[in-house]
Amino acid sequence: MSDFIVTFCFFSFAGNVFVVSLAVADLVVAIYPYPLVLTSIFHNGWSLGNAHCQVSGFLMGLSVIGSIFNITGIAINRYCYICHSLKYDKLYSDKNSLCYVVLIWLLTVVAIVPNLFVGSLRYDPRVYSCTFAQSASSAYTIAVVFFHFILPILIVTYCYLRIWVLVIQVRRRVKPDARPKLTPHDVRNFVTMFVVFVLFAVCWGPLNFIGLAVAVNPGMVTPLIPEWLFVSSYFMAYFNSCLNAIVYGLLNQNFRREYKRIIVSLCTARLFSTDSSNEAVERIKSKPSPLMTNNNRVKVDSV
Question: Where is the protein found, in the record's own terms (predicted)?
Fold first, then answer.
């Protein structure tokens, strides 16, 4: 645990607080909605009542929108850190960074609340989940796709394009001393978060474009969408929550080192507990039974 804290503190607090917030958004679906989806699959239908359905759908939406808003926040943070390094410390002090994260989650909750009034959180038997019904309200679906996917994607794309331009300029020595903070470590962190963004866009793009098409003309488009396409795009989208940790482990040396230490610690603890239990069993077997001892004592006394 101390090694993890040292590694965590090695990086800037401002950058880490957004990554931790993104991790929380990914974990939200694993704690509550996913177990209910598995239960629904095993029972071939929803059997947990409407209250659990609404809570599950609400948390799924919270995770999705929280993820894209946090990815947007990370992109803006990296953009300011690399392209506007002189203003970065002032913009992203520890207090300001926490305020930004709180603002992200407030906006996420505000974005999800209308679902409760529109009635768009429903059980969909195609995916065994209580989720956002794209055909519930055309206007609301268009607003969701634009403000919660297209607009954040455009902002993130702009930020990362500006960063790529600067990285290329520095590597070609066009601006050799313009950005003293741009180190190989910064570039690796940027590449990691860029891959996270690309995977999110690829995983969530199909489902959002299907929703946009359905919202524009529900009566004509809905029958034309094959069930396998919707189901595939849905599960591909929610599989994205599992990918970020893999990306961190593949592209970030510090994460790989901590993953390795955690796995080794778990294996060592398991082997230690197994050896301890075997030793305890052997001691019990080698120790004479109290009953036999008493019986022998009785026999000796009777003699």
Answer: Cell membrane
